[in-house]
Design brief:
Elements lengths: L19 H5 L13 E4 L6 H9 L4 E6 L2 H30 L2 H18 L10 H16 L28 H11 L2 E5 L13 E5 L22 H16 L3 E7 L10 H5 L4 E8 L11 E8 L2
Parallel strand pairs: 1-2, 1-4, 2-3, 4-5
Antiparallel strand pairs: 5-7, 6-7
Helix pairs in contact: 3-5, 3-6, 4-5
The structure holds S-adenosylmethionine (SAM).
């Protein structure tokens, strides 16, 4: 047992660390007595909610998924091969810290090119040693890129520039080990949120944290994957939420509140009519300009 609590090993846009207390206070009460044996999170991202809930409550099984294949590979490596991953991160950290300030940027750019070049190699289709290297590169890039963002261009290449910081938390071995422990009872999937449907029944708690609906055209952030998440996707998700509800699962979903930009915007109120919608204050971290990170509402929808 490691001394650290399990928590995200990556910084991820939309990460829910700062909403955790509000999420926890809205969980179904029976979650405390083991009523829900299965935890499902179909948009896991950095996993702030997953890691917290999976180590707090006694779920027998957890299922996490994300459409992002780099995330899938990295979660799988943390689960199956954490010590080898730590070894690779130790090497990459040493090489990086041995560079002087100016050449660190070049080192970063080389790792980024290798990361993008090798992700389409055949070995990347199945678990292999190449996965451990790929996972270590993703973690390295996440800890050294500008603002810790994951963003891809139209051809799927990671394109975030280097970030100049005083320190770089490239290797957080105790967190990785604690995460690996939680992942032992977890199945990891890559793909669309609907693929995880077979694991959802009346004994399941499902937490949905889809990409935010943009508040306005300038706050658009669609860089998690090549194909963004538009209003039709939000509608498809609402239909899936209703399906999970009909199966008897307890469901919670968070999103941005369009009323922040237009108080008359009823998009989610209409999509989730019949469910409970709470509005909670949150700080938006996605804006790289910290002066523009104001407090705005998010919505939390529950079916209980
Ligand atoms: C808001 S983030 C999740 C943040 C996460 N809960 C956290 O705490 O870091 C949304 C995630 O949905 C994923 N995603 C986008 N479209 C998807 C789809 N159709 N099916 C499954 N995952 C998808 C993105 O790759 C991204 O990681």
């Amino acid at each position: 047992m490691s001394g650290e609590c399990a928590r995200p090993f990556l910084k991820w846009a939309g990460g829910k660390t700062q909403l955790l207390d509000k999420i926890k206070s809205r969980l179904p009460k029976e979650i405390n007595n083991g009523r829900y044996t299965t935890y499902v999170e179909p948009f896991v991202g950095g996993g702030a909610v997953f890691f917290r809930l999976a180590q707090t409550y006694d779920f027998q099984e957890c299922y996490i998924a994300d459409i992002n294949s780099d995330l899938y590979i990295t979660y799988t490596v943390v689960k199956q091969n954490v010590e080898e991953l730590i070894g690779k991160l130790r090497i990459i950290r040493e090489e990086f810290l041995n560079c002087d300030i100016e050449t660190r940027r070049d080192f970063y750019t080389t790792v980024r090119s290798e990361f993008n070049r090798t992700k389409n190699e055949p070995d990347c289709d199945r678990y292999s040693e190449a996965w451990t290297l790929h996972a270590s590169r993703l973690i390295f890039l996440n800890k050294t890129c500008f603002n810790g963002l994951y963003r891809v261009n139209l051809s799927g290449g990671f394109n975030v520039p280097f970030g100049k910081y005083k320190t770089y938390p490239i290797l957080q071995e105790e967190i990785l080990r604690a995460d690996a422990e939680v992942l032992q009872k977890t199945e990891i999937y890559q793909g669309d949120f609907t693929h995880i449907a077979t694991h959802i029944d009346e004994n399941t708690f499902v937490y949905f944290d889809p990409p935010y609906r943009p508040l306005n055209s300038t706050s658009l952030f669609t860089g998690y994957a090549k194909n963004g998440f538009d209003d039709d996707e939000q509608r498809r998700l609402a239909a899936f939420f209703a399906e999970c509800d009909a199966k008897g699962a307890r469901c919670m979903l968070s999103n941005s509140d369009p009323k922040n930009a237009d108080p008359k915007d009823e998009f989610f109120d209409e999509l989730y009519a019949g469910f409970n919608i709470d509005r909670v204050p949150a700080k938006r971290m996605i804006n790289s300009d910290s002066s523009k990170r104001g407090s705005i509402n998010e919505i939390i929808v529950t079916n209980y």
